[in-house]
């Protein structure tokens, strides 16, 4: 009798470790032909990716093109806005690939981002896996291979080297970390997925919507704009939006030790000036 209890306990530990495994976001700079990304810009983008990596615990199947199984992805080339296609694409389990770059987006738009599309041919089981990556039907969950983000090359940017503090944000520059979080939200399906669109009319929260970050009031990250010289973290409401889309969002950040083991629609993000 005692022995059986022990075995069950071991099983439970194994299960919780499995659930705590986080997703990985891989940024690909192969289309950054306008050279928007400096080393510092990449570092700040990685910080934004790390936020989602620490909170999303979905299990996404791998997609492997081989033989007669062809997975051809398309997305907006971040340097041109023109549709780009990569044939026989593959992506690892629990991983998203995001193509990033910059171009002149014009006016007050800081960034555009969204999930990628695809075409495919192959066996039925190969095709069935592509839409949600092992998470059921697309009207109920969202499991993209990744997507693309473009940042405005003509905007004045602040690339924070330490996003653990909001201090010292220059008042006259746009906080790249905030905009990266926002555009990654669109890649993850906020305003851009079937599961979002089935229950929401707009691709953002209403302008000025308030929520909380660690108990402190803040305008939501996924409303349409941000004030120059300010930072917006992903709020409780923004995370609820991701949950609504079908993402598994951990209540608290996944511990770093566990985490280490372990035709696209676009969202526009304009900024408003202080008046
Ligand atoms: Zn947006």
Topology readout:
Blueprint: H1 2-19, E1 24-28, H2 39-53, E2 70-76, E3 83-86, E4 95-103, E5 109-115, E6 117-121, H3 124-130, E7 146-152, E8 157-158, E9 174-175, H4 176-187, H5 194-197, E10 210-213, E11 216-219, E12 225-227, H6 236-245, H7 256-261, E13 267-272
Parallel strand pairs: 1-4, 4-7, 8-9, 12-13
Antiparallel strand pairs: 2-3, 2-6, 5-7, 5-13, 10-11
This protein binds zinc ion.
Residues 182, 186, 204, 267-269 line the site of zinc ion.
Radius of gyration: 19 Å
| E-strand count | 13
Cα-to-Cα separation, first versus last residue: 72 Å
What value does the average pLDDT take? Answer: 88
pLDDT < 50 stretches: 1-19, 257-271
**Content-based structural category:** alpha/beta
Give the biggest beta sheet. 6 strands, mixed
Instruction: Summarize the helix and strand pattern as letters.
Output: HEHEEEEEHEEEHHEEEHHE
Strand line-up in the sheet with most strands = 1-4-7-5-13-12
What does this entry look like structurally?
The chain is α/β, with parallel strands linked by helices and 275 residues long. The protein is built from 7 helices and 13 strands. It has helices at residues 2-19, 39-53, 124-130, 176-187, 194-197, 236-245, 256-261, and strands spanning 24-28, 70-76, 83-86, 95-103, 109-115, 117-121, 146-152, 157-158, 174-175, 210-213, 216-219, 225-227, 267-272. The strands form 4 sheets. A 6-stranded mixed β-sheet has the order 1-4-7-5-13-12, covered by helices on one side. Helix 2 (39-53) packs across helix 4 (176-187). The chain is globular. 40% of the residues are buried. The protein binds zinc ion.
């Amino acid at each position: 009798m005692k022995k059986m209890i022990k075995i069950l306990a071991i099983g439970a530990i194994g299960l919780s470790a499995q659930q705590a495994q986080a997703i990985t976001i891989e940024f690909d700079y192969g289309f950054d032909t306008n050279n928007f990304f400096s080393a510092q810009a990449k570092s700040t983008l990685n910080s934004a990716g790390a936020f989602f990596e620490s909170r999303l615990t979905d299990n996404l199947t791998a997609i492997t093109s081989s033989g007669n199984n062809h997975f051809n992805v398309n997305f907006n080339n971040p340097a041109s806005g023109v549709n780009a296609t990569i044939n026989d694409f593959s992506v690892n389990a629990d991983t998203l690939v995001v193509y990033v770059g910059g171009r002149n987006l014009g006016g007050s738009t800081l960034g555009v981002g969204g999930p990628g599309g695809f075409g495919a041919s192959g066996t039925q089981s190969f095709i069935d896996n592509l839409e949600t990556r092992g998470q059921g039907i697309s009207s109920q969950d969202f499991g993209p291979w990744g997507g693309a983000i473009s940042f405005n090359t003509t905007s004045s940017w602040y690339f924070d080297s330490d996003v653990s503090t909001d201090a010292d944000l220059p008042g006259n520059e746009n906080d790249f970390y905030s905009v990266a979080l926002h555009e990654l939200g669109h890649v993850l399906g906020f305003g851009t997925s079937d599961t979002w669109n089935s229950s929401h009319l707009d691709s953002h929260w209403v302008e000025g919507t308030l929520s909380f970050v660690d108990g402190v009031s803040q305008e939501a990250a996924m409303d349409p704009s941000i004030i120059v010289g300010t930072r917006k973290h992903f709020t409780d409401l923004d995370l609820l939006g991701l949950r609504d889309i079908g993402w598994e969002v951990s209540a608290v950040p996944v511990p770093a030790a566990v985490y280490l083991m372990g035709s696209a629609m676009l969202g526009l993000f304009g900024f408003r000036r202080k008046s």
